[in-house]
From TrEMBL:
Superkingdom to which the source organism belongs: Bacteria
UniProt name for this protein: Monoheme cytochrome SoxX (Sulfur oxidation)
GO molecular function: electron transfer activity; heme binding; metal ion binding
Ranges of residues in domain Cytochrome c: 27-119
InterPro entries assigned: Cyt_c-like_dom, Cyt_c-like_dom_sf, Thiosulf_SoxX
Keyword list, A-Z: Heme, Iron, Metal-binding, Signal
Secretion signal, residue range per the UniProt entry: 1-23
Taxonomic lineage of the native organism: Bacteria, Pseudomonadati, Pseudomonadota, Betaproteobacteria, Nitrosomonadales
Zinc recorded as keyword: no
Pfam families noted in UniProt: Cytochrome_CBB3 (PF13442)
Length: 119
């Protein structure tokens, strides 16, 4: 059977796409902690102290410390709503509305909520 150049190109394209998909899967998935600490994403440390933060990370203190979160937010949905848009429950809040302004994706907010809720 004789191969045409078009079939060869299609096969090569499929191989490249397959390699790309496998490379993406091999990347480490970001955790809620990664997102919360990332200065280009959640940047929670800019305003909040948290347990286990190294001194060289210099957490801020303009927001409340993120401690005893399960006691402070027995309903995890309330914490998620606060991270989504803190101004909804407190119009004078200066916390960025992470979801409302699309600073974080829905999945990233869920990961951050899971991380923060465990503090």
């Amino acid at each position: 059977m004789k191969r045409t150049p078009i079939k060869g190109i299609a096969l090569l394209g499929a191989l490249i796409l397959s390699a790309s998909v496998h490379a993406d899967e091999a990347k480490k998935e970001e955790s809620g902690k990664d997102i919360a600490y990332d200065r280009t994403k959640g940047n929670c440390l800019a305003c909040h102290a948290m347990p286990g933060v190294a001194d060289d990370q210099q957490p801020g203190n303009s927001g409340p410390p993120l401690i005893a979160m399960k006691d402070r937010f027995p309903d995890k949905k309330v914490l998620r709503a606060k991270i989504w848009d803190a101004t909804a429950s407190n119009p004078s809040s200066y916390m960025p509305p992470m979801g409302k302004h699309k600073i974080l994706t829905e999945q990233e907010i869920d990961k951050v909520v899971d991380f923060v809720y465990g503090l």
